[in-house]
Amino acid sequence: MPYRRLPNTDAARIKALKAAIDKSNNMDYNDVVVSMNTLYKAKNIVSKFEKMYKANQQTFEIQIKANKFFQEQIKNARLYISHFVQVLYLAVIRNEIKPDYLILYGLENSEMLLPDISTNELLLEWGKKIILGEEKRIAGGGVPIYNPTIAKVKAMYSIFKDGYTTQQIHQKATNRTQAEVVSYRAEVDEIILALWNQVEAANIDLPPKQKIDENKEYGVVYYYRKGEKVE
Predict the structure, then answer these.
(1) How do residues 121-138 score in pLDDT, each as one tens digit?
(2) What is the pLDDT of residue 1?
(3) CA–CA distance from 195 to each of 3, 4, 36, 39 (Å)?
(4) pLDDT band at 227; cut points 50, 70, 90
(5) Distances in Å between the alpha carbon of 226 and those of 31, 85, 208, 230?
(6) Where would I find the beta strands (DSSP E) of the chain?
(7) 222: phi then psi, degrees, rounded to nearest 5
(8) In this structure, are residues 78 and 117 in contact, taking their beta carbons and an 8 Å threshold?
(9) The whole model's pTM is what?
């Protein structure tokens, strides 16, 4: 005999519940094999769970869409900050800027290497250091670095920083809706199990093939082992 297995995706859970509900709704009252209490619970649960599921899908899609723009913002911020640091190092090598000024940027022990800005958090940290360092040097009478100017670097950094904050908000929203879905799955699976048990119990005396077909109409999902056939 084939074996059944509870749905392993949220979409499949919703489909299974709706199948049992729709099948019961289209039958005469005396022919319904699921108890009214279980059916009532199933209707309430699928309505609530589907709303949770759709909310999670929506927040995730918004996050993905926003992330496409955010990746471009990361790229620009990283490009301008790294370029600025390279120009700064060249100015030090040419003796246009004293090496002692590197301390303003947090680069005094850098050995003329680019800072690690491989993650968003490091990019935030170093972007702030570089911008503040250049502003302090200029405020002390230093000649501004051009190509890129610190104003352009600051503009790209600000856009990235805003994008980072927005992505954090989207991530929190997705995590929240996902947590709601996950916390409700056990209750959903419990009602699906109750439905399937009642359906199988009602059809237990039917011939194997007919029993399987009848149960499937209520959304019961069966899996066959390799080489197994229904007699």
Answers:
(1) 999 999 999 999 999 999
(2) 65
(3) 16, 13, 11, 8
(4) low
(5) 35, 63, 18, 12
(6) 3-4, 222-223
(7) -115, 150
(8) yes
(9) 0.82
